[in-house]
Amino acid sequence: MGGGSKDRSGAPLGGTHVKGEMDALVRSGWVAGLANDRGFEVVEQHVLPAREPTFSPIPETLHPALQEALAESFPQGLYSHQVDAISRAVAGDDVCVATSTASGKSLVFMATAANLLLNEPTMRVLALYPARALIQDQLDKWRAFAVGFGLSIGYIDGDVPMDRRPAILRASSIVLMTPDVAHAWLLSHLDDSVVRTFVDSVRLLVLDEAHVYDGVFGTNMCFMLRRLFAVAPGTRFLMSTATLHEPAAFAAKLTGRSVVAFGKEADGAGAPEKHILLASSPARGAFERKADLLRALAGERKGRFLAFADSRRTVEMLVSVLGRLPETDGEEEEPPSEAAMWSRSGILPYRAGYEHDDRTEIQHALSNGTLAGVVSTSALELGLDIGEINLVVMLNAPSSTKAFWQRLGRAGRRSAGTCLILDGERSILGSDGGLSGYLSRPAEPNWLYLDNRYIQYANALCAAQELKSTSRARADLAEFSTLPDAFVRMLQNELDPCEAIPPDLYPLKQKGHGGPHREFPLRSAMEQNFQVIGPLERRLGTLTLSQALREAYPGAVYHYMGRPHRVKQMNYRSGFIRVSREKRRTTRPIAQAKVFPRFGGGVLAARRSGRSFVAECEMQVSERVLGFVESVGAAKVEHRYGPGSSYSQRELNRFFETTGVCWLFPEQCGRSERVADAIRQAYCYEYSIQERDLGVGFFFAKSSLCDDETCEGACVFDATNGSLRLSQRLTESFDVVLRRAAGMCRVEGDEVAARDLLAMALYAEEMTLGPPDGSIDAADSDGQWVALVAPRETAMHWGPSGSEEVVVKGFRYTPQGILYELEPATKNSRWLVRHETIQPIHGVSRMVRYNLVTGDEAEV
Questions:
Q1: Which terminus of the chain is more solvent-facing, meaning fewer CB atoms within 10 Å of its CB: N or C?
Q2: What is the 3-state secondary structure (H, E, C) of 663-680?
Q3: This prediction's pTM
Q4: CA–CA dist 724, 722 (Å, integer)
């Protein structure tokens, strides 16, 4: 640190002045006028008043050199919460700072790290940032702070070559890293002496932007942090976030430790005022109106803006439309280069999955004023330094209040800001209290589901390898004591095998032989990841399997940086998707979700009345892409996969175990896709869940919960392999959700769906909540007997190219174990597979019991 003015992160103050800068009140009137002219009606306004800062003296417990430097840079003292958090961290507590955006949380990290290293120079600090872009953003701030103390800063993200990483660990006192690299590289190389020495020396772990540790990513982080603590004893942590519900409780669940938390009530930072405008949005032509509004905002250049959308497709399509020449709007056109799109509209897209160079270019262009604005997914909710943003436009009501406050925090960090919310679904307008009521809601809890057995087992494989690489294979199992017992048993069995691997976990065991840290990424719940490769071998982003089935299936038009590309090849084994340039056109997958509920023994909660029921249960889901529909202007062409297809000879299939809520009502109530999707939307709004994390499908079962007759119905299911139980609260609140869904359908003018939903609500009100079905299927091995799929039955096979439906011809016991013979794809061939790769389908596959000694068979 040196002299001169600093902000509270320790970085020099400064910002680019934007031509046409205006007062916030004037800007709000200008934005409202532009919105009203395009059919959006601003119906509510709210002003969040400015807040004055509260200062406290610099802690006397800090190293003298650090005290002197802080006093020189901050003669008024530090914000009160900074002083309190630094004092507790220096005293040895684990600390969570959950104050507002731009409240100087980074300074807490840096001062605590510097104090540790000035007092104990041989120790090390590891700082985890959940995005590579955040590392690059924070790196200069860390270096500016540390230079006066002679501390060396290094970083390792996915773009740093493997052979350079050990040297960075040797040379750096503080290392910035993504959690992905800490999991996939650092913890998998504990047998390397350089890595081992670094990990042994880590005494402080920094966790920034903790609110992103949610769902699959957050659940994996719960396990990964305990794994890190197990091999790096003596490490304490500092965590920060701007929006967390009950931060102390969340931090304790995430890390397994007691935490001292500083929330909004302790916030001593000042803040400028913010003007919030809420506008209704007409259902017809909403997409075109939003594009026109963004074009107008960019054209007048009265400050920089961020526009947030909740889907990657919307982000890409909006920017693609904005990059068109006016005279070709709606027609097929050779898309311009990124530079031409930039100059035409002054707007570029931003989302997760972009390559590092592309992300960096967009951030720099926005921060230096070259761009008028950016249309982004939640990826820019993080605290990236992109200069002063004057206006935030939320193109729809955010899915959660956490997302709302993160997005709002991007505007007006140093001067007053404006926020426009386009509430087309009337999520806010139709709620109790309107905008004021919405602003008073607490942030929702993060979803962490530690009972997902697939996530448990993947982490057990990783932990076993880590502990075997150290001398702590037994001593540090105590670090895992706050995790479910099932995980601890899995880990113990990997360290000292004494039980057979359950059949449903066997594919993970096989996959893990290639290196569990690499095979099981933190963010994708055991899903295959794909790298998109374009012309001249240019990398065009990464996708998970579920994202690929939505965006980059064979024949799809995949958009990257607003430019369309045709998917020519999708190779599951290599993990590559190859694309070529394409003209302006769009595709949508022909998708189908088949649900196989486990009504016998897998019911978790149920409500019944007569022959109607609503039940949360275990299930299998087969998400299929059968082909796609291509649109060029108003013309649409359907393409089906199969032997005659030029894109794929077979359907794509993602088959997984999960949980969900099934329902069955009289008179075909609730069995349309429109009604099921409305229930999903309403439930997601009611409980602040991302719609992409839940799927909709239909089930057929040979018996229902009420009798032994076959039944068909609809379902909302958790889209994560192994389930996070996101649909858990739908059963008990089903009638409430139905009425909200009916209201949403009426707003959209769909009276038929609204009437159907209200009829279901009347049935649901008469239902009583019963106990779960705790029985156990008989499909388990028992001494000499084992349960197998019967001949001529359909089952699911897990192979190197994913999952596919197969027909069992028979089975046999061999010296290599049980083998299934399957119906071959070609004549005059045999297809034998290990029995662990075959999975019965709930309610479809008939099972038999097979005696391994006598060869006898018996019905299950």
A1: C
A2: EECHHHCCCCHHHHHHHH
A3: 0.81
A4: 7
